[in-house]
Amino acid sequence: MLRRQARERREYLQRRAQEERLRRQQDKKERLRQALDENRLLPTELRRQALALQKELEFETPGENGVTGSQDDEYRWAGLEPPKVMVTTSRDPSSRLRVFAKELCLVIPGARRLNRGRAEVGVLVSACRAAGVTDLLVLHETRGRPDGLVLCHLPHGPTAHFTLSGAVLRHEVGGLGGAPLGAPHILLHRLDSALGRRLGTILKHLFPVPRPQTRRVVTFANEDDVILVRNHVYRRQGKTVELEEVGPRFQLRPYLIRLGTLEQGDAADVEWRWHPYTATAPKRHLLSAT
């Protein structure tokens, strides 16, 4: 088992490195094509490779992507089988965090809740990997208030860290019926930057492929770099559509993405980190292009 995991890890890293090389090569081709179309000087770093790149451009059609694989290599088989999600908490959780973990399992179809007990992170991840779990969600709290979510995709990553705020349970929303358990449609609103698309990929693959007649919608809406998570059921009344929130609701703010799994900790490479104490931090929009 250990040899198999080591081999899969090496193959995964090789695919990632190859995709990164292809992406850089394609970026150079696009810059060269733009310079030739606009009849301006070539960038300095492309002048030595200009002739070789131009020969490759002759065999490519405009708009063709030279990268054969997906940038998110971890999700290349997503959709073939429904994901297997495990939800757990930090040690000694409060009653509110337990209820929130149960309701999060209602939002994600097929998710199961695991009592953490005294299990360490390494043992937890190894057990989930051996059981074929595709995603591990760990909830954290401060004084009974849920305030953190760690999403680890198995078997090789990535691991996304979120600050969780504004958690409202289903009974606090009020006027609710039974919780629908069907696979929902996923709406990703204003997650159109490179980072936003990456987070959208991580979040949407927690859910299986929905049926066309499904009447449930889970929305991840970006508002000032905070992802609002809402769970609705919609009904058609003639030409109008009525939305009913079934909860729970909460907000996510990403601050770290690592390429490894949760037990690797600081040993895993950092793909992205939030830097709030920079001069341009108030002006930037990280999750949206506008």
TrEMBL record:
Chief place of localization: nucleus
Gene Ontology CC: one annotated term: small-subunit processome
GO MF annotation: an example: snoRNA binding
One Pfam assignment: Brix
Positions of the Brix domain: 83-263
Top-level taxon of origin: Eukaryota
Regions annotated as coiled coil: 2-42
PROSITE patterns assigned to the protein according to its UniProt record, in alphabetical order: BRIX
Compartments where found: Nucleus, Nucleolus
InterPro entries: Brix (IPR007109), IMP4/RPF1 (IPR044281)
Keywords (A to Z) from UniProt: Coiled coil, Ribosome biogenesis, rRNA processing
BP GO annotations: ribosomal small subunit biogenesis; rRNA processing
Function, in words: Component of the 60-80S U3 small nucleolar ribonucleoprotein (U3 snoRNP). Required for the early cleavages during pre-18S ribosomal RNA processing. Part of the small subunit (SSU) processome, first precursor of the small eukaryotic ribosomal subunit. During the assembly of the SSU processome in the nucleolus, many ribosome biogenesis factors, an RNA chaperone and ribosomal proteins associate with the nascent pre-rRNA and work in concert to generate RNA folding, modifications, rearrangements and cleavage as well as targeted degradation of pre-ribosomal RNA by the RNA exosome.
PANTHER family: U3 SMALL NUCLEOLAR RIBONUCLEOPROTEIN PROTEIN IMP4 (PTHR22734:SF2)
Assembly and oligomerization: Part of the small subunit (SSU) processome, composed of more than 70 proteins and the RNA chaperone small nucleolar RNA (snoRNA) U3. Component of a heterotrimeric complex containing IMP3, IMP4 and MPHOSPH10. Interacts with MPHOSPH10.
Protein's UniProt name: IMP U3 small nucleolar ribonucleoprotein 4
Gene name for this UniProt entry: IMP4
